Amino acid sequence: DAGITQSPRYKITETGRQVTLMCHQTWSHSYMFWYRQDLGHGLRLIYYSAAADITDKGEVPDGYVVSRSKTENFPLTLESATRSQTSVYFCASSERLAGDIAKNIQYFGAGTRLSVL
Amino acid sequence: RKEVEQDPGPFNVPEGATVAFNCTYSNSASQSFFWYRQDCRKEPKLLMSVYSSGNEDGRFTAQLNRASQYISLLIRDSKLSDSATYLCVVNQAGTALIFGKGTTLSVSS
Fold this sequence. Notes:
heterodimer, A: seven-stranded mixed beta sheet, B: five-stranded antiparallel beta sheet, 0% helix
């Protein structure tokens, strides 16, 4: 089915390990986003990308790395996982960030629940 | 002042009640406005976009007041299935969407 998919859905890792969360969308949306969601903080933007090879920091980028070599994929890497990175991670995509409101709508993947022990 | 503020609730209402959520935003340059719904431990999903003239979708009505930088969501005839967290979302042109922390609604029989 077309849409936005995240993998894995659940991940347990240890501090210091490198972890990569995958995000794939089939709509050919230009924009893709990574958020983390924690109790008391709501959704916080980690990184986003306007197109292949164009990425920008969000509110909480420290400790994370992203890449976007292809329009449809936007992996998020925790280079050396810490306990504070235990969270639910959501990937999202949208056609645009301006203009027609319908094209600004973000569609979310089902999320990845990451636990860092 | 936070960019998007919502009353966190929880709002506890009986079935059939009418409930209203409010949201304020700080940046007057904000251009697009949305209400998303998030069920427990699931991804946010678009409930409705908010247009300048206000808009209605079945039991849901959204209003925008640009002068007061205020957005509202009204739910009429609440159903058990309306129990969720409602996220107020805004953006300025060229920037990522900004999400409020959400308002929790619990509808009981």
